Request: fold
Amino acid sequence: MRSVRPPAAHLARMQPYDPKYLPARAFLSANENPLDVEDKLRQEIARELKRVPLNRYPDPLANELRDQIARAYGLRREQVLVGNGGDELLFDVALCWGGPGRTFLNLPPTFSVYEANARLTHTKTENVPRRADFSIDEEAVLARVARGDVDYVVVTSPNNPTGNAAPAGFVRRLLDTTDALVMVDEAYGEFCDESVMPLLGDYENLLVLRTFSKAYALAGVRMGYVLGAPTVIEQLCKVRQPYSVNALSQTAACAVFRNRERFAPAIRGIVAERERVLGELAAMPQVHPYRSDANFILVRVPDAHRVWERLYDRGVLVRDFSGNPLTADCLRVSIGTRQENNLFLGALAEALGPSERKADR
Ligand SMILES: *Cc1c(COP(=O)(O)O)cnc(C)c1O
Reply:
């Protein structure tokens, strides 16, 4: 076989994104909604999908969906942009506000995609790590942006994987301190009472990200959106893939967004389950759960990787964050159905039980 010359040098240190999907009885590793779209709405979607022309290109900007979203938030179409999952829009932000000679401010531990996008776009990443309890080191962030070289910041609220929301007062102070683009990633915003959306009218440098993948049970459809100033959206339109959002996804997302009220009880149920699971975890010896404003909980346990294995042996897949020094001994568990959560709690109690330590494996 003839060989190929090496790829771009910056790929050498990179690994493909791996969600570590494994078959399991309780799939609690990806922060999805445990309940799929209900039957009646599914049928409505199926009827509409049947009528979608497959031979024609879709509307590149998905204007029908854009208008629906704009109307819901009292914005104009020019303040909304949809993408192939929030992930595409995160990359577009790095393409627009990052680049060679430019700087991204990251607040780790947080979603790993931001740093990967910075690398891909030859953007320098500066870190202001969170405190031990994963709250944002607000004064350090404000001091860092005051130096003037930061081009964009991502504030994840609620944060993944730690679960805590950023105080709205902090986001406002940040927006007042810098003209850097401040992307507030509210992928889990529907599980939390706070949103920075009310600030949109006041700040050109605020961009809010939301997704259909979590609360709205459409992770398989790939649909996310950003809300921001028309001047910012216009830049993102320059770098986006013209037909990234396919016609089937546009149709499904329109139907779900139109019917979003129907998801409210399920969202309330997930939040109630989160509080119940938090209480159960807090009562377990050796287990330290962090409070959460999202649909998952970060838990610190002794010998976390071993616990992850023992949970998996019992059919429960959670996400292992213990390889990252900032989340040493931490596992992240998504809130599932009540049965799935009970399976997890039972498996965790067993996994931590000392008597079995030597016996299994
Ligand atoms: C899940 C997630 C997203 C977006 O996911 P998509 O499925 O691409 O919409 C964005 N940010 C964070 C922090 C997430 O956890």
